[in-house]
Amino acid sequence: GQQLNQSPQSMFIQEGEDVSMNCTSSSIFNTWLWYKQEPGEGPVLLIALYKAGELTSNGRLTAQFGITRKDSFLNISASIPSDVGIYFCAGQLGSGNTPLVFGKGTRLSVIA
Amino acid sequence: NAGVTQTPKFQVLKTGQSMTLQCAQDMNHEYMSWYRQDPGMGLRLIHYSVGAGITDQGEVPNGYNVSRSTTEDFPLRLLSAAPSQTSVYFCASRLTAGGTEAFFGQGTRLTVV
């Protein structure tokens, strides 16, 4: 099946630092989504992107839909301990009924 | 709002046993799906449904059955559990037309011994 390559796999950062993670694919996606999963919970949608080049923010989080439509980036500014979790990218190749494809996740640890 | 509700939250099965994981949503979403999450593997799609009476296979459907008799419910059945089915299972729902956001349940942690 389609694959999304998400990197890095894990990150250990100091509180207050900025964080960047990304997803790439060999296929063109029409939609990119970013989720966060906390321990014992299901993923929660953070940001949805629908147009190539689109840059969207949600508080300290900013995500971009790559201009080639084959990649997406998530940045977290001034990290805090509650940012800890697994961040997943997801993409949709078509529209409507097309299933989402998920990356394998980036596990973020924040050291106070 | 309850959102997406999964039951049970935890389950231990013996190899060969059968069980049904329940999923219900109260958002009138047409599209529902089941994923399994394994360490280092991300979320992999098992089965999905675009509406009542319609189901389709995802990336890893073997060993699982689904049905969709109502808009609200989408149960996942394991007919003969195997240790390889030890995983965390998530149900998700979303609007179909024009909607890609998915709302996830809290998950069912299944152990097959």
Overview of this structure, please?
The complex is a heterodimer of chains A (112) and B (113). Chain A has 112 residues and is mainly β. Chain A is 0% helix and 53% strand. Chain A contains no helices and eleven strands. In chain A, strands 2, 4, 5, 9, 10 and 11 form a six-stranded mixed sheet that branches. Chain A has a five-stranded antiparallel sheet with strand order 1-3-8-7-6, with no helix packed on it. By secondary structure, chain B is mainly β. In chain B, 0% of the residues lie in helices and 51% in strands. In chain B, the strands form two sheets. In chain B, strands 2, 4, 5, 6, 9, 10 and 11 form a seven-stranded mixed sheet that branches. A four-stranded antiparallel sheet of chain B has the order 1-3-8-7, with no helix packed on it. At the A-B interface, strand 5 and strand 9 of A face strand 4, strand 5 and strand 10 of B.
Average pLDDT score of chain A: 94
Indicate the proportion of strand residues of chain A: over 45%
Distance between the termini of chain B: 36 Å
> What string gives the helices and strands of chain A in order?
EEEEEEEEEEE
Number of helices of chain A: 0
The tally of strands of chain A reads 11
Helix fraction of chain A, binned, reads under 10%
Q: What oligomeric assembly is this protein in?
A: heterodimer
Rg calculated over all Cα atoms of chain A:
13 Å
Major beta sheet summary of chain B: 7 strands, mixed
* Rg of chain B, alpha carbons: 13 Å
The helix count of chain B comes to 0
Low-pLDDT sequence parts of chain A: none
- Count of distinct strands of chain B: 11
Secondary structure category of chain B? mainly beta
- Topology order of chain B in helix (H) and strand (E) letters: EEEEEEEEEEE
Structural class of chain A: mainly beta
> What coarse outline of chain B follows from CA principal-axis ratios?
globular
